[in-house]
Amino acid sequence: MENIASYISTHQQRFIDELIELLKIPSVSADPAYAEDVLNTAEAVRAALQQAGCDHTEICETPGYPIVYGEKIIDTNLPTVLVYGHYDVQPPDPVDLWDSPPFEPVIKKTELHPEGAIFARGACDDKGQMYMHVKALEYMIANHALPCNVKFMIEGEEEVGSESLGWFLERNREKLANDVILISDTGMISKDTPSITTGLRGLSYVEVEVTGPNRDLHSGLYGGAVANPINILSKMIAQLQDENNHITIPGFYDKVQELSRAERDEMAKAPFSLEGYKKALDIEDVYGEAGFVTNERNSIRPTLDVNGIWGGYTGEGAKTVIPGKAYAKISMRLVPDQNWEEITQLFKSHFEAIAPKGVRVKVKPHHGGFPYVTPIDSDGYRAASKAYEQTFGKTPIPQRSGGSIPIVSLFEKELKSKTILMGFGLDSDAIHSPNEHYGVWNYLKGIETIPYFYKYFTEIKQG
Ligand code: BES
Ligand code: MN
Ligand code: MN
């Protein structure tokens, strides 16, 4: 039996070329203009699963974009791993800020990636990370090294809230039955410090609209005498955090699980350089909730951020105007045991309550999701930890992430299984940003590590 490392050295160029082909299809789920490309991507993923050796693959229709399903069942008495990933990507905007076109992948060397990194939208999030699983499966099947059953479920709406996946889960519990769910859609600390993600934040995402006068007004004739919706919106947003950067929405922190000093001390052991962090972002100082350090602020604490704000005149030159309306998109990242539906309601009531007379306020909820935390004493975590030890020569560090994959908490509820988050991305991969990239080293290391997860998980399960 050929081992995975030698299989990779023989086939790595093809592994890279195949991923590049997948990255050329602009599967932007947020924009209906790309609908056909999203569907074509689903078909490409299905074909790749078939080629890798699945016995059965399928495009499962949903009310939204389809879910790609594939399976290789070798023996129903053996454990089953369910792999989840997403084939949709974020919009590439702002396209001007890319050094090369977002859907024309190129490999370039960077300081962190002397072996080269693939630059394209979706390179890391999540096509590159998802495709590692397809190639690991190819290896295991081709070399009679698949020790258990495997199912793949790759969706096309992760970046827009996974609504159809919830629908699909409810209707396919039997089909999706598994012993553990495996996902690569997160990151790790660094190339020489492997880590396993043990938590994800929840999310409440809302859009607000502030309406003042019934039309845009001359800012000289009316300025000072009527409420300017942009001024008001800015003041309202500013009030949502106090001088300690504590969120002021009544009840917001009621269900937040406070970590013990011992747990926080444990977290602080993970390697982190504040100087390096500031340098990478070109900021003079970090900023956040008083009483917490950076790695706590972005993982175990809830947040509130404006993601976009607009209204009035933003074109060339100057136009003197008081706009009739102003808008903002606001996200709140949540931690256990906050409930996103409750938080959305608390936000709405509070935002309406702080609006002065003279404007009307509308709060429109978008999507949301529950936070997730997984223990490190599960069979899946142990198997993952051993897999990293094998390929990195180091025990991975458990780490809670600030990002969200809202569907993960639903997996636990609907499918009753634990999720293991084996992410191989780096914070510097610029996911959701211009110049997203994924290191070739990370891609190949992921492919190398995954088969060991299957091996150890099966061994642990079979006792
Ligand atoms: N893969 C990311 C989430 C992620 C990235 C988690 C890195 C941890 C580390 C996922 O595709 C994503 O972008 N999720 C969205 C939420 C979604 C509802 C749009 C997010 O976190 O903003
Ligand atoms: Mn993702
Ligand atoms: Mn994403």
Structure description:
This protein is an alpha/beta fold and 463 residues long. It folds into 2 domains: 4-200 and 371-461, Zn peptidases (Aminopeptidase), CATH 3.40.630.10; 202-256 and 302-368, Alpha-Beta Plaits, CATH 3.30.70. It is built from 12 helices and 16 strands. The chain has helices at 4-23, 35-52, 127-142, 163-171, 229-238, 261-267, 274-281, 294-297, 340-353, 379-392, 407-415, 440-462, and strands at 56-60, 67-72, 80-86, 106-108, 117-119, 149-155, 180-183, 195-200, 202-211, 303-311, 325-334, 360-369, 372-373, 397-400, 419-421, 437-439. A hairpin with an 8-residue loop joins strand 4 and strand 5. It is globular and about 80 Å long. The chain binds ligand BES and manganese (II) ion (2 copies).
Secondary structure elements and pairings:
Elements: H1 4-23, H2 35-52, E1 56-60, E2 67-72, E3 80-86, E4 106-108, E5 117-119, H3 127-142, E6 149-155, H4 163-171, E7 180-183, E8 195-200, E9 202-211, H5 229-238, H6 261-267, H7 274-281, H8 294-297, E10 303-311, E11 325-334, H9 340-353, E12 360-369, E13 372-373, H10 379-392, E14 397-400, H11 407-415, E15 419-421, E16 437-439, H12 440-462
Parallel strand pairs: 3-6, 3-7, 7-15, 8-14
Antiparallel strand pairs: 1-2, 2-6, 4-5, 5-16, 8-13, 9-11, 9-12, 10-11
Helix pairs in contact: 1-3, 1-12, 2-3, 3-12, 4-11, 10-12
Bound molecules: ligand BES and manganese (II) ion (2 copies).
The site of one manganese (II) ion has 5 residues, from loops.
